[in-house]
Specification:
Chain B: This is YCII-related domain-containing protein. Chain B: Belongs to the YciI family. Chain B: InterPro entries: Dimeric_a/b-barrel, YCII. The complex is a heterodimer of chains A (about 400) and B (about 110). Chain A contains 20 helices and no strands. Chain A is mostly helical. In chain A, helix 6 crosses helix 9. The N and C termini of chain A lie far apart (about 55 Å). Classes of the chains: A mainly alpha (about 400), B alpha+beta (about 110). Chains A and B meet through loops of A and helix 2 and strand 6 of B.
Chain lengths: ~400, ~110
């Protein structure tokens, strides 16, 4: 790695923290980004030549602050706003916990419910993830000009509508934290769904999401939602190497080569589930429970050796916090594995409202096939295919249909 | 402190008619409860009283007035409040207590002070 690369990486790692403090100090996210950009350019110019300063974060902050003071003074010459600039010359306190709180405030600002979900995702990647506008645009399959406009509009709204830069009070925290988690989960799914052959920037969204979840876990180490989210992302990501075959077709969980699952991510994911469960009050968090289910799969050496009893129990818990037909369907699948296809089919048939959902038909078909009811299975496969799905998924169902 | 306007969109109603007296009382109660941050506001006559004014030929040109607008949507602009709040979160908390929030929609916009 060249010095330039090392400097670029260091700048990217420190960037969000410095930016978070700058936003607090200047009270203006756009100004903070502008002066941060200037400081980054200067760092990339001078550090490779003169060496990295002893306190890179402090260097970036001081350089950006000087620039901000310059700018505000120039804009506010002769007006009362000069006081604002003067207030900024006081050196900001920089102990670890202040920087931590600044970052946390930035997290909640970027994921404020008054911003559209797409704006939240873009802002999180840009300001918290430190990606460039071009990278965010490519990752989300949006033209760069559109993304630049989206980011500008979101930042303007933060400034003009005064979206506060603070950590929500205890009574609003659960709802707001759920919003932050949903944004990070959405980023993960964007990358996860991109599949093989997609732009690397796009698939790297899973890595970004894990990074953001990890950052959040560092900032709020006692929140079960946060620990559960991180665990769930790690456990889902651990299957990355096994979930597509050589032709890029999805491989079912049961057929995946478990030797290709990432053991390091599984170990950490399982550990995080444990931490989350120990901190879980009477009402469990949906992310924690989903992570617990993922952990049951991750820990099983083979599909047959899966602890289906535990999986079914976790689905029972999940239904107490989030009762949806799709979760009922997933539970029925686990029951079929534990008690046989007949028991599973009874439960699947009892779920209403999923006739437009291809996986309800596909699950019925699979269970009918296992029960030797070929004709009914064929019919159900046909209904699943008619309900519509992606081509690789349809190919898998057609293969199954051929065995009926 | 920034000022926000809270625009209430509800079914197109005539607040002067007796059948809306109960609902009007709810708005008055809100006004009293939010007196600290309220900087003005009014209920509006129904959209049937609205007139649209345009000067299509440019400044100084002929004035064209027309009846309406009537929109196809179920919700019409029926009133507004001016709120002086510290930030958007506070404005949202106040707006959530306006009866229109459960009878329709409340739109909050920051007001520019030149």
């Amino acid at each position: 790695m060249t010095t330039g690369d090392a400097v670029a990486r260091l700048v990217r790692e420190e960037g969000p923290r410095v930016l978070a403090t700058l936003i607090r100090v200047t009270g203006n996210i756009e100004l903070a980004e502008d002066v941060m950009q200037d400081a980054v350019v200067r760092a990339l110019e001078t550090w490779p030549r003169d060496g990295v300063p002893g306190n890179p974060r402090g260097w970036l902050l001081v350089t950006a602050r000087h620039r901000a003071i310059d700018l505000v003074r120039r804009r506010a010459r002769g007006t009362a706003k000069e006081a604002e600039a003067m207030a900024m010359t006081d050196p900001p306190p920089e102990p670890v916990e202040v920087v931590r709180d600044d970052l946390l405030r930035l997290v909640f600002t970027c994921c404020h419910p008054a911003l559209s979900l797409e704006a939240q995702v873009a802002l999180a990647l840009r300001t918290l993830g430190g990606l460039s506008t071009a990278e965010v645009a490519r990752a989300l399959l949006v033209p760069e000009a559109t993304m630049a406009k989206r980011l500008t509009r979101a930042k303007r709204k933060i400034v003009q509508a005064r979206i506060p830069y603070r950590v929500p009070a205890a009574d609003e925290l659960p709802a707001r934290l759920a919003g932050v988690a949903a944004t990070i989960y959405l980023i993960f799914n964007e990358g996860y769904a991109a599949g093989a052959g997609a732009d690397l920037v796009r698939t790297a969204l899973t890595v970004e999401a894990v990074r953001l979840a990890r950052l959040l876990a560092e900032l709020m180490p006692d929140e079960p939602t946060v620990l559960g989210l991180l665990a769930l992302l790690l456990l889902q990501n651990s299957r990355r190497g096994a979930r597509l075959d050589a032709d890029g077709r999805p491989v079912l969980l049961a057929d995946q080569d478990r030797g290709r699952w990432n053991a390091v991510e599984i170990r950490e994911g399982v550990e995080r589930v444990g931490q989350a469960l120990r901190r879980t009050p009477d009402r469990p968090d949906a992310y924690v429970v989903q992570a617990a289910i993922a952990a049951c799969h991750a820990l099983a050496p083979s599909p047959a050796a899966t602890n289906w009893d535990a999986v079914v129990s976790w689905y029972d818990v999940l239904l107490t916090v989030q009762d949806t037909s799709v979760i009922r369907l997933n539970r029925a699948v686990a029951v079929a594995e534990r008690d046989g296809p007949a028991a599973g089919l009874t439960l699947v048939d009892a779920i209403s409202g999923l006739t437009a959902y291809p996986w309800w038909h596909a699950t019925r078909a699979e269970l009918l096939l296992r029960l030797g009811r070929g004709e009914e299975a064929r019919e159900a496969y046909g209904q699943a295919l008619a309900a519509g799905m992606s081509e690789p998924q349809a190919r898998h169902l057609r293969d199954r249909l051929a065995t009926c | 402190m920034p000022t926000y306007i809270a625009l209430t969109y509800t079914a197109d109603v005539d607040w002067t008619r007796p059948e809306y007296a109960e609902e009007t009382k709810e708005y008055i109660a809100f006004g009293q409860a939010a007196a600290d941050v309220l900087r003005g506001g009014h209920a509006l006559y129904p959209t049937a009283t609205a007139t649209t004014v345009r000067v299509p030929d440019g400044k100084g040109g002929e004035v064209v007035t027309s009846d309406g607008p009537y929109t196809e949507t179920k919700e019409a602009l029926t009133g507004f409040y001016l709120l002086e709040c510290a930030d958007l979160d506070e404005a949202v908390a106040v707006a959530a207590k306006i009866p229109a929030a459960w009878n329709g929609t409340v739109e909050i916009r920051p007001v520019i002070t030149f």
